[in-house]
Design brief:
It contains four helices and two strands, in the order ααββαα. It is mainly alpha-helical. Strands 1-2 form a two-stranded antiparallel ribbon. Helix 1 runs antiparallel to helix 2 (41-60), helix 2 packs parallel to helix 4 and helix 3 runs antiparallel to helix 4 (101-120). It is globular and about 40 Å long. The chain crosses the membrane at residues 44-61, 68-86, 98-117. This is VanZ family protein. Keywords: Membrane, Transmembrane, Transmembrane helix.
Length: 122
C-alpha cells in the first residue's frame, strides 16, 4: 500500500477520535463554554465536523459506491448519513442534548460538502 494512502488512513483515524471525543463531550454537557460566544456555533460545528468526516471517509474508502436500485450511491456518505440520523434520534435520551431538525440539516449539508470536495479533489 502506498505511503500516501496510509497517511490518509492515519489522518482519518485521528479525526474519528476527535469526532468521537466531541460527541462524548456534547453528551456529557462538557463542551467548552467559550463555544457559546460564537454565534450559531452549534450549526457551524455540524457543517464543519460532518464535512471533514465525509471528506476523509470517502477518500479512505477509495470513493467506493454501492448500487441502490439503479443509482450508484457513495458508500461512506450513505453510511455516515444513516449514523447521523441514528445519533440525532438518540439525543432524545440525553439530558444534555436535544433532537433538532436544523442540526440534522446542518449535518447533511456538511456531509454533502465533504463528499463534493472529496470528489472534486479526486
Amino acid at each position: 500500500m502506498k505511503a500516501a494512502r496510509w497517511g490518509w488512513r492515519i489522518l482519518a483515524a485521528l479525526y474519528a477520535t476527535t469526532f468521537l471525543v466531541t460527541l462524548f463531550l456534547a453528551y456529557t454537557g462538557n463542551l467548552p463554554p467559550q463555544f457559546s460566544q460564537i454565534p450559531y456555533y452549534d450549526k457551524i460545528g455540524h457543517v464543519v465536523l460532518y464535512g471533514v468526516a465525509a471528506y476523509l471517509g470517502h477518500r479512505v474508502l477509495g470513493y467506493r459506491r454501492v448500487n441502490l436500485l439503479t443509482i450508484a450511491v457513495p458508500l461512506f456518505p450513505l453510511l455516515f448519513a444513516i449514523g447521523t440520523v441514528t445519533e440525532e434520534l438518540l439525543q432524545t435520551f440525553s439530558p444534555n442534548r436535544t433532537l433538532d431538525a436544523i442540526d440534522l440539516i446542518a449535518s447533511f449539508c456538511g456531509i454533502t460538502l465533504g463528499y463534493w470536495l472529496s470528489e472534486r479533489g479526486r
